[in-house]
Write a structure and sequence with these properties.
The protein starts with 7 loop residues before the first helix and ends with a strand. It contains eight helices and twelve strands. By secondary structure, the protein is an alpha/beta fold.
Length: 245
């Protein structure tokens, strides 16, 4: 199995959020508890119960992370040589990290995790998609762009663990340009969902559309504010229920 770039903080927050939801006074979640008891008593009902459980939705970025080890990052106009001959390749991007972490956390209760992202048209894209599917992430609502590369993170890792990086957005920037089409995609994604997870490595209009659809469907929204060094739009802040700084 390939190594995924991940954040322990993100994982803990997702876990706490899911625990919160499992105790929330929500009719759909109460119904889920009954369904889980039924399919534990009758394993043949597993497929039906899985289909009826409210799913987790992650909308965001996916990158291929290329990491090299260096004694220190280069200064301006300087070239440094890597300290090892290998380049580490991993699935990354804040959205993909959240999707895989959520899928691993809910694997024992049959809840589906749906990840809405944009794949490029390079060979990395095929591998990225296969890795997500292998980790039980549903990518059926994601787009594909033959004319763009996959989102890519170039990471220089120092011996003390400090990382310097450059991120190329690639296909992460290519969402439906038509607002009606984008809104329809988000409405489909959040329908009957338990929670929506967002980050900021995709265009802001994508998060706004996702939050608006979730609000309309009375689905809670969690926003990881990482991904871009820019102020949060007030409209987005007002549309989310949980914020991870």
């Amino acid at each position: 199995m390939s190594t995924f770039s991940s954040s322990q903080t993100q994982t803990i927050i997702i876990l706490l959020l899911l625990l919160h939801l499992s105790c929330a006074p929500h009719a759909t979640l109460a119904h889920e508890s009954q369904q889980q008891q039924q399919h534990q008593q009758n394993p043949s009902c597993d497929a039906t119960a899985r289909a009826e459980l409210a799913h987790v939705v992650v909308i965001g970025s996916i990158n291929v992370d290329l990491t090299v080890h260096v004694a220190r990052p280069p200064h301006l106009e300087e070239t440094v040589t890597a300290t090892t001959p290998q380049i580490s390749i991993a699935v990354g991007g804040k959205g993909a990290n959240q999707a895989v972490a959520a899928a691993r956390l809910v694997q024992n209760n049959s809840r589906v995790v749906k990840f809405v992202c944009q794949f490029g048209g390079d060979t990395h894209a095929q591998w990225l998609e296969a890795e997500l599917i292998a980790n039980n992430v549903d990518v059926s609502l994601s787009g594909h762009h033959a004319d763009l590369p996959s989102g890519t993170g170039f990471v220089m890792l120092s011996p003390d663990g400090a990382a310097s990086s450059v991120v190329v957005s690639g296909a992460n920037s290519a969402w439906p340009s038509d607002d009606v089409e984008l809104a329809s995609l988000m409405q489909t994604a959040v329908q009957n969902a338990a929670v929506v997870l967002l980050q900021r490595e995709v265009p802001e209009r994508v998060n706004l559309a996702a939050a608006a659809a979730a609000n309309q469907a009375s689905v809670p929204v969690m926003l990881d504010t990482g991904g871009v060094d820019a102020p949060l739009p007030s409209e987005l802040i007002e549309s989310v229920d949980f914020v991870c700084p």
